[in-house]
C-alpha cells in the first residue's frame, strides 16, 4: 500500500446520513453557502464555467472528461478538527443525471480525506446530507463536489451548501494596534495637528507628545467626542497644533498608550508626489518597464503588444456583433488590479494628472519644477516637455485610438472600454495574459470623456507640440459633435465579464465637463452656451454632492474646477458664480472635516462609504485645495491636511492606505503583477499606491475575503489589506490620480506656507476695442523689497486669442501661454518700480483679464 493510500485509509471515516439523535449540528463552516454574495469563496476547475443564477451556483460541465475529479466545484480553507462530528448538506440538480463524488479532503497531496461518498443527483433538486467524524486535523480542508467523467455536457446547479460541526470558526477581529491614531507620515510645521484616541473614558485625558529621545514636547487634554458613527468606536480627539518644531520620531501618548511615530517637517510630501505619479508609468500597457527607472524588482516586459500569448492590443476586434473593424488600441494605462482599459476611468485619471500640471500655471503657490522635464520616472525624460505631461500623453494617445474611425457607423463616438473576454486569475503578468481582448460598444459617456480630456490636452500641449495639440483638439471637437448626435448611448450595466462595467445612466455631467473644457480651450460660443444652459451650471449640490463628490461617473465638478481656475471667456459675474460653487462645496467639506472625530472631509449619508471611498476623500480634498488656491483661506487648507491625516493613519483601523508611507501601510493590494502575497517572487505594490478603502458594498459585491472576514463591520472599518479583497483593497488609476494631485498640493503647501504668501508684484491689465480686436496695456509693479532682473511675466490667455503688434517688451506666445520679457532698456524692475508694455490681440471688444500672472514664477496680485 502506498503512503498516500495508507493515509487515506487511516483518515477516512465512513459517511453516515444523519447526526445521532439529539446531537446539535454545531457551527457553520461554509462561507456563502447560499450564494447571496455571488460566487465569493467558491472555485471551480477552469474547464467549467460557473455563475450564480436564481440564487444557485450553476456550473456548465463539459462533455467527455474521464474522471469525476476532472470537473470540480469547491470551497477551500475549511477548518476540520480531529474527533469532531460534522454534517455536510447541499441541494443540487443536473440536466443530465450524474453521481457526485462528495469529498472533504486536503486541497493538495496527499489529499487526506475525511468524507468520501457517491451521491446521485437527478434533474429535480435533490438534497444530499452526509455526516462524518474527522479522524485527523485538516486546518484548511477542501469541500469538493466532483462532477466530471460524464459523456454529455450538463448544467449542474447547487444551493444551500452547509457544513456544520467542529469548533466555532474564529471571528475576524482586525488588529488595529495602538488606540492613539495620528498621521503616520507626519504634520506640516505650520499646519493643524489633530489626532484621535479610542477610549471608553468619559472625562478628558492628558495627551503628551514625546520627541524621539523621550522628552515631552507638548501636553494637553483630549476632547471626548462620544461614539464615532463611522466606526462605532468611542473616541476623544486631541490637537497639538502649537508644536511647530521640526523633527522625526515623535509619538503621542495618551493613558499609557503610544501612537505610531511621525515627523513634523516641511518636505513630508516630496517623495509621495513623485511616487504617486510613478504609479502611472508602472501600470503602462504596451511598453517595457525599465529597470533603470523603477529598479529590477519592478521591471517587466511590455504587455499587450501583439506578442503571444497576448491577443492584444495592436489589432483588437469588437465583441461579437458590435463592429466589423479592428483597432490598434495599444498603450494607455491598465485600469487597476485587472488589465482592462476603460475610457471613462482613464478619462478622469488623465484629466486629474493634467490638472495637477495645469494648477502650476494658475495657482499662486504651485511649483512646476518638480513636475518638470527630468524630474519624474518616465522614459521620455529630457525631451523638453514636463514629465507629468509625458505621462499623461501615454493615456491621451490611447484614448484617441478608442475613437470610432471616420466612415464607420457611429464615427467620432468612442468605445466605452476594451478588456479580456474573461477574467484572468491572480497573479498574471501583463505580457502573459492569454485572453482575447475585445472592444466594447461606443457610449456617450466615453465620447464625452474624450471630448473633455482632449480639449484640455489641446491647450496644455500647445507650447510643446503644436501638432499633437491640434490632433487633440480635432479629436475633442469630433467627439463633441458625435455625442450631440448620439446623446443617450449608455453602457450596458451587465457587460461585466472579464472587466468592469463602468456603466453610467446619467451623462449630463459628462456633457457639462466636456463643454467647460472645450469652452476654456477654444472660447467658442457653442461651448459657452452649452456651459451656461446646463442644469448643473451654478448648482453646487449637483456637481459636488455633500455626501459624495467627483468620481468617474460624476464628472461635472471637473468642469467647474477648470472654469474656476483656468482663464476663460466667462464674464466677471459668471466667473464669480462658478467660484462660489467651489467655495460653497468646500465650506461643506471643511465643516464635515471639523465635525468628524477622524477629521476626514467626507461624510456620506448613512455612513454609506462607497467603493473606492479613499478616492472620494481625495476628490473632496481637491475641491478644498482649489478653494484654498482661489481664496488663500486657511480653513480650506486645514481640511486638506486633515484629510491627509485620515488617509495616512488617523482612522478607525490605524491604517495608512498608501503603500510605503507610515508604519502600518497597505501593501497587499489587489493587483495582478504586484501580487507578492500570492507569489513571493513578485513584488508588493510600489510605494505610493493607494488602496480603495472601506466600503459598505464589500460583502454584497461577492468579494470573497470581505464575505469571510468583514461581516458586520462598521462602515469605516470594512477594509482588509488582503490581496483577495478586490472590493476594499484594489488599486487603480482613478484613485492614484487624485492622490498625485493632492501630494503635489501638499508638497507645495509644505514649501510655500499656509497662508497665501505676500505677493511681490501687482499687475494691471487694461483693454479697449481696437479695429476688429482689442488693445491691451499691462503694468507690472514690483511690490517686493528686492529688485527683479531680468523680469519675466507669464499668463494664460482666456479663449483663443492671437497677439499681433506688441510694444515695450519681448513677447512669446505658445498656444495660450504668453510670456513678456524686458528689452535692453527696461531689464531691471527695482522695488516699487513699474514697467508698462502692451499688445494688440484678436479678442474682439474688450479682451478678458486672465486674472492670474506670475512674475519670475511667483504669483502677482491684481492692481
Ligand atoms: O471603481 C469602480 C466602482 O465605482 C464600482 O462600484 C465597481 C463595481 O462596478 O467597479 C469599480 O471599478 C473597478 C472596475 O470595474 C474594474 N477594474 C477595477 C476597478 C476598481 O475596483
From TrEMBL:
Keyword Signal (UniProt): yes
A Pfam family annotated for this UniProt entry: Glyco_hydro_9
Highest taxon of source: Bacteria
Alphabetic keyword roster: Carbohydrate metabolism, Cellulose degradation, Glycosidase, Hydrolase, Polysaccharide degradation, Signal
Residue stretches making up the CBM2 domain: 754-863
Signal sequence, renumbered to the chain: 1-20
Active site: 721, 730
Record-level Gene Ontology MF annotations: hydrolase activity
Record-listed E.C. numbers: 3.2.1.4
EC supergroup of this enzyme: hydrolase
Catalytic activity annotation: Endohydrolysis of (1->4)-beta-D-glucosidic linkages in cellulose, lichenin and cereal beta-D-glucans
Family according to the record: Belongs to the glycosyl hydrolase 9 (cellulase E) family.
Name this protein carries in UniProt: Endoglucanase
Organism: Streptomyces silvae
Amino acid at each position: 500500500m502506498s503512503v498516500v493510500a495508507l493515509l487515506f485509509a487511516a483518515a477516512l471515516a465512513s459517511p453516515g446520513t444523519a447526526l445521532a439523535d439529539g446531537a446539535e449540528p454545531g457551527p457553520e463552516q461554509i462561507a456563502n453557502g447560499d450564494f447571496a454574495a455571488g460566487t465569493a469563496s467558491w472555485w471551480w476547475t477552469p474547464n467549467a464555467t460557473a455563475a450564480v443564477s436564481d440564487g444557485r451556483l450553476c456550473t456548465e460541465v463539459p462533455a467527455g472528461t474521464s474522471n469525476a475529479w476532472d470537473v470540480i466545484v469547491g470551497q477551500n480553507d475549511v477548518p476540520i478538527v480531529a474527533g469532531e462530528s460534522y454534517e455536510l448538506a447541499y441541494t443540487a440538480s443536473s440536466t443530465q443525471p450524474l453521481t457526485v463524488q462528495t469529498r472533504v479532503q486536503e486541497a493538495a497531496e496527499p489529499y487526506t480525506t475525511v468524507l468520501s461518498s457517491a451521491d446521485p443527483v437527478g434533474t429535480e433538486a435533490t438534497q444530499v446530507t452526509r455526516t462524518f467524524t474527522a479522524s485527523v486535523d485538516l486546518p484548511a480542508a477542501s469541500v469538493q463536489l466532483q462532477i466530471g467523467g460524464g459523456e454529455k455536457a450538463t448544467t449542474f446547479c447547487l444551493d444551500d451548501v452547509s457544513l456544520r460541526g467542529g469548533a466555532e470558526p474564529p471571528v475576524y477581529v482586525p488588529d488595529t494596534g495602538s488606540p492613539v491614531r495620528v498621521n503616520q507620515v507626519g504634520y506640516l510645521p505650520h499646519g493643524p495637528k489633530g489626532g484621535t484616541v479610542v477610549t471608553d473614558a468619559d472625562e478628558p485625558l492628558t495627551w503628551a507628545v514625546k520627541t524621539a529621545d523621550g522628552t515631552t514636547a507638548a501636553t494637553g487634554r483630549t476632547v471626548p467626542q462620544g461614539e464615532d458613527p463611522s466606526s462605532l468606536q468611542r473616541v476623544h480627539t486631541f490637537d497639538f497644533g502649537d508644536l511647530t518644531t521640526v523633527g522625526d520620531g515623535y509619538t503621542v501618548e495618551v493613558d499609557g498608550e503610544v501612537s505610531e511615530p511621525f515627523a513634523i517637517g516641511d518636505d513630508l510630501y516630496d517623495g509621495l508626489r513623485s511616487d504617486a505619479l510613478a504609479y502611472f508609468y508602472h501600470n503602462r500597457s504596451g511598453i517595457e518597464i525599465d529597470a533603470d527607472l523603477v529598479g529590477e524588482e519592478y521591471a517587466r516586459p511590455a504587455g499587450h503588444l501583439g506578442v503571444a500569448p497576448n491577443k492584444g492590443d495592436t489589432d483588437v476586434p469588437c465583441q461579437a456583433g458590435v463592429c466589423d473593424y479592428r483597432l490598434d488600441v495599444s498603450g494607455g494605462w491598465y485600469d487597476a488590479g485587472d488589465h482592462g482599459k476603460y475610457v471613462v476611468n482613464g478619462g478622469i485619471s488623465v484629466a486629474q494628472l493634467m490638472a495637477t500640471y495645469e494648477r502650476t500655471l494658475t495657482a499662486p503657490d504651485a511649483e512646476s519644477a518638480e513636475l518638470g522635464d527630468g524630474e519624474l520616472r518616465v522614459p521620455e525624460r529630457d525631451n523638453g516637455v514636463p514629465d507629468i505631461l509625458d505621462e499623461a500623453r501615454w493615456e491621451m494617445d490611447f484614448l484617441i485610438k478608442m475613437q470610432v474611425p471616420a466612415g464607420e457607423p457611429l464615427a467620432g463616438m468612442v468605445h466605452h472600454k476594451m478588456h479580456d473576454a474573461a477574467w484572468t486569475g491572480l497573479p498574471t503578468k501583463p505580457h502573459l495574459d492569454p485572453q482575447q481582448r475585445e472592444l466594447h460598444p461606443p457610449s456617450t459617456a466615453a465620447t464625452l470623456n474624450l471630448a473633455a480630456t482632449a480639449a484640455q490636452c489641446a491647450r496644455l500641449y500647445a507650447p510643446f507640440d503644436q501638432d499633437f495639440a491640434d490632433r487633440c483638439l480635432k479629436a475633442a471637437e469630433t467627439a463633441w459633435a458625435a455625442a450631440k448626435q448620439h446623446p443617450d448611448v449608455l453602457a450596458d450595466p451587465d457587460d461585466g465579464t472579464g472587466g468592469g462595467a463602468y456603466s453610467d445612466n446619467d451623462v449630463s455631467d459628462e456633457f457639462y465637463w466636456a463643454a467647460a473644457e472645450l469652452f476654456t480651450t477654444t472660447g467658442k460660443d457653442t461651448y459657452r452656451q452649452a456651459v451656461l444652459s446646463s442644469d448643473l451650471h451654478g448648482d453646487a449640490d449637483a456637481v459636488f454632492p455633500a455626501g459624495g463628490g467627483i468620481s468617474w461617473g460624476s464628472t461635472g465638478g471637473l468642469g467647474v474646477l477648470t472654469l474656476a481656475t483656468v482663464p476663460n471667456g466667462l464674464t466677471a459675474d459668471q466667473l464669480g458664480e462658478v467660484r462660489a460653487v467651489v467655495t460653497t462645496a468646500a465650506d461643506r467639506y471643511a465643516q464635515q472635516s471639523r465635525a468628524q472625530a477622524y477629521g476626514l472631509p467626507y461624510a456620506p449619508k448613512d455612513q454609506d462609504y462607497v467603493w473606492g471611498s479613499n478616492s472620494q476623500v481625495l476628490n473632496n480634498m481637491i475641491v478644498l485645495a482649489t478653494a484654498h488656491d482661489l481664496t488663500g483661506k486657511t480653513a480650506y487648507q486645514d481640511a486638506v491636511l486633515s484629510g491627509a491625516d485620515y488617509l495616512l493613519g488617523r482612522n478607525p483601523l490605524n491604517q495608512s492606505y498608501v503603500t510605503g508611507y507610515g508604519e502600518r501601510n497597505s501593501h497587499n493590494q489587489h493587483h495582478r503583477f504586484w501580487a507578492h502575497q500570492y507569489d513571493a517572487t513578485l513584488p508588493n505594490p510600489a510605494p505610493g499606491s493607494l488602496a480603495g478603502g472601506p466600503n459598505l458594498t464589500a460583502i454584497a459585491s461577492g468579494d470573497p475575503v470581505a464575505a469571510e472576514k468583514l461581516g458586520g463591520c462598521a462602515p469605516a472599518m470594512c477594509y482588509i489589506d488582503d490581496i483577495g479583497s478586490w472590493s476594499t483593497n484594489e488599486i487603480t488609476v482613478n484613485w492614484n490620480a487624485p492622490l498625485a494631485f493632492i501630494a503635489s498640493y501638499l508638497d507645495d503647501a509644505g514649501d510655500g506656507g499656509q497662508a497665501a504668501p505676500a505677493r511681490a508684484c501687482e499687475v494691471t491689465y487694461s483693454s479697449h476695442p481696437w479695429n476688429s480686436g482689442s488693445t491691451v496695456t499691462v503694468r507690472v509693479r514690483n511690490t517686493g523689497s528686492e529688485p527683479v532682473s531680468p523680469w519675466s511675466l507669464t499668463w494664460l490667455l482666456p479663449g483663443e486669442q492671437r497677439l499681433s503688434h506688441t510694444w515695450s517688451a519681448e513677447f512669446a506666445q505658445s498656444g495660450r501661454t504668453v510670456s513678456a520679457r524686458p528689452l535692453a532698456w527696461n531689464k531691471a524692475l527695482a522695488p516699487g518700480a513699474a514697467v508698462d508694455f502692451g499688445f494688440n490681440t484678436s479678442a474682439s471688444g474688450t479682451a478678458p483679464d486672465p486674472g492670474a500672472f506670475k512674475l519670475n514664477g511667483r504669483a502677482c496680485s491684481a492692481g
